[in-house]
Amino acid sequence: MNCIIIEDQLPAQRILKKYIEDIGSLTLVGSYTDALSALNVLNSKRIDLMFLDIHLPKLSGIEFLKTLSHPPQVILTTAFQDYAIESYELNVIDYLLKPFSFQRFVKAVSKVSHVQHNKIANADIHQKNTVEDIYIKSGYDHIRIKTEDILYIISDSDYTEIHVHDKKYLSSESLRYWEEFLPQNTFTRVHKSYIINTKKIIKVSGNQIFLEKNNSIPIGRAFKKDFMERFLPI
């Protein structure tokens, strides 16, 4: 997996570089002391994982993450634990509290590997059936849902809720997972907590999207421009 480091403290950068070298499964593409300097590589290369410090000059790690429409997987690093709850709302993979050991680093990276494995496994299921179907694990069962029936998906702590007509299904997959897995010509992220089925749109009014079944979804400021350009006529 290709990764980058955004960390303004050089000693912390050196530790991360050493850990990345030792683990073997990661390829370090670049290291940066502020978030804005990393924008070019994020836009020009495939980056699978970002080690992101929270306290950075110019723009904090969390503020930077909120500006990215399609961020890579993220492991946050910080000397402060005050941001743990907010970080998980942004669907980060893990939260490393400095100073962290190599063992703790490996545990965090293994979560990334697990997510990658799940993507491949679910993609295989997806291909064996049809692009119109997804499968939600419930206990020992896998429930088939037609994607055309989905109204929207909302992030709920460690889970996502998939809303279908008058029902909702809980999934352990993150919002980022569904954003990448579902057909992007039909499903789009319009808020840090919402993905919608654009075929279910009744109208757009200001910063609100109105879907079938009287559902109103907010448009996040960071997502509005992309949504307007892709789906609404000029």
Q: Round the mean pLDDT to the nearest integer and report it.
A: 83
**Whole-angstrom Rg:** 19 Å
Calculate the terminal CA-CA distance, rounded to whole Å: 39 Å
Q: What fold name stands as the CATH topology of the largest domain?
A: Rossmann fold
Q: What's the CATH architecture name of the largest domain?
A: 3-Layer(aba) Sandwich
| Fourth-level CATH superfamily of the largest domain | Response regulator
> Given the helix and strand composition, which structural class is it?
alpha/beta
Taking pLDDT < 50 over at least 5 consecutive residues as the criterion, the unreliable ranges are 123-131
State the domain count.
2
DSSP strand count: 15
Cα shape: globular
Largest sheet: number of strands, sense, barrel closure? 5 strands, parallel
Tally of alpha and pi helices? 7
Helix amount? 25-40%
Q: What spatial order of strands do you see in the largest sheet?
A: 2-1-3-4-5
Strand-residue proportion: 25-35%
Order of helices and strands: EHEHEHEHEHEEEEEHEEEEEH
Question: What labels describe this entry?
Answer:
234 residues, 2 domains, 33% strand, single chain, OB fold (Dihydrolipoamide Acetyltransferase, E2P), five-stranded parallel sheet, alpha/beta, 15 strands, Rossmann fold
